[in-house]
Amino acid sequence: MNRHLVTALVTSCAFALAATLTALAKDKDNDQQGPVETDAVVQFGAGQPQPGGPTTHFLDPEDVTIHKGGTVTFVVNGGGHGVAIYPVANHTTREDIAADLCQGPPGTAENDRAARATVCNAATGTANLAYQLTDTKNDIVVEVPANVANNNPRVDDQPRTLLGTSGQIPNSPARKDGAFLMGTNAANDTPGHRIQYRFLKTGRYLVICMNRGHSMNDHMFGFVNVVGDDDNN
Length: 233
Known about the structure:
- There is one protein chain.
- The chain is an alpha+beta fold.
- 18% of the residues lie in helices and 26% in strands.
- It is built from four helices and ten strands.
- Strands 1, 2, 3, 4, 7, 8, 9 and 10 form an eight-stranded mixed beta sheet that branches. Strands 5-6 form a two-stranded antiparallel ribbon.
- Strand 5 and strand 6 form a beta hairpin.
- It is globular, with a radius of gyration of 21 Å.
- The N and C termini lie far apart (46 Å).
């Protein structure tokens, strides 16, 4: 075989291998949990019909990856929800966030909401305690002060939030408990709120319910990964 042809083939293979490794590294750096989509849909609460209660307080899927500039539509199911979005470090895991929330009986699995509810519930008042959510770099993501005399009724860290659908009006004497969203009701075919957010910057984002009971007690949160040509860590 011609020596120049062999050299060209080797060079071509080397470039192809480098490109593949770069793509794999980028996937790893961004903690992608699934296929990259232009736009994604996330069920905010178990799909209808649902009985309600702690076991329905989750996002489905709980981790999605989209292209920079794409959207995520959160379809609200059930009642008493508020959607909030916060940026987190890229390698932040579910365990990082869950560790800062109310814990169930010893040995309770993260997805066992029924078991956790025997300890984390309205009767014990755990949702009204102070919480500080941190990411994998131990940076504060969401500060949740104690709710005393309804002075902090929502998960609503305004200096850090990108979106808060049920929060208070900044610097306003008005009530701090903004209205919750109306969820889809399968029984009477009532459509619920659909919140669509366009992500214009790459990174990893925490999506959490603004209802203190749903988030602090039931761990109702998930993640959105946004990838593009300006990926950051």
